Amino acid sequence: MDLGIRGKNALVCGASKGLGRGCAEALAAEGVHITLVARTAEILEATAAEIRRAVGDGTAVTAVACDITTVEGRTKALAACPQPDILINNAGGPPPGDFRNWSRDDWIAAIDANMLTPIELIKATVDGMIARRFGRIVNITSSAVKAPIDILGLSNGARSGLTGFVAGVSRKTVAYNVTINNLLPGPFDTARLTATLAAAAKSAGKSAEEVREARRLQNPAQRFGTTAEFGAACAFLCSSHAGYMTGQNILLDGGAFPGTF
User: Fold this and answer.
1) Second label for 138, Cα 20 to 30 Å away, from 77, 97, 159, 243?
2) What are the residues facing 196 on neighbouring strands?
3) Closest Cα partner for 96 from 150, 163, 33?
4) What is the mean pLDDT of each run of 10 residues along the chain (261 residues)?
């Protein structure tokens, strides 16, 4: 299927690895000019080089090393991609823990990264999309928005706040062919999952392999998701065919969520 977005411009946050990289690769494969944003320059530049080799000279791949959760970082990213047609919001989740141990500063940091940063980027780009009568905004959130995880209270709260905001504004922009949707990943085979499982193994006094295998078998799909299939889902949401889909929270979790709705 031709997604109808060749030649569009995309700003992809958290794009050096993991799910963000999967989205960047999928969009670049469709001929979208991409601006990759991440904090670590060395990893980001290596990712950009690999994507350039994969897609060839016809697709522009720009790398911007910055912290998107800061005003300075957002200014730098938007200077490199001032008129994106596609915006992929993605920032690392806050650490797990017991809410009794979190300070106000912990909450502010989580809300800044996982709620206010996406809102600021939407604010900076959505009017241009409306003027051009095309825009696709995808927020990478978490399956915890649908099924909260007790030790991820910071993430549950901040990402749910973003979800509520999107529910309202996405109904205002869709009349101009500008959609805003959320992708909710479950367990995907990324470095973050590996680190989480390693921490769980250490806490339980088990091997990382034992904990990983148990977690895999808990999932109805009997496996973890891949970044490529996550990227493909994201690319479809960004396509010309998805203009009638907005304000949705789309789970990619192998069927782990047990509810009907």
Assistant:
1) 97
2) none
3) 150
4) 97 97 98 98 98 95 97 98 98 87 96 97 98 98 90 92 97 98 95 82 87 94 97 98 98 94 84
Q: How many CB atoms lie within 10 A of CB 16?
A: 23
DSSP 24-73: HHHHHHTT-EEEEEES-HHHHHHHHHHHHHHH-TTS-EEEEES-TTSHHH
Give CA–CA dist 4/11, Å, rounded: 17
Measured from the Cβ of residue 259, the count of other Cβ atoms closer than 10 Å reads 7
Dmax (CA) of the chain: 57
- Spatial separation of the C-alpha atoms in residues 6 and 31, rounded to whole Å: 4
Which residues have a Cβ under 8 Å from the Cβ of 10 and sit 6 or more positions away? 24, 27, 32, 33, 34, 35, 81, 84, 85, 86, 87, 88, 238
pTM here is 0.95
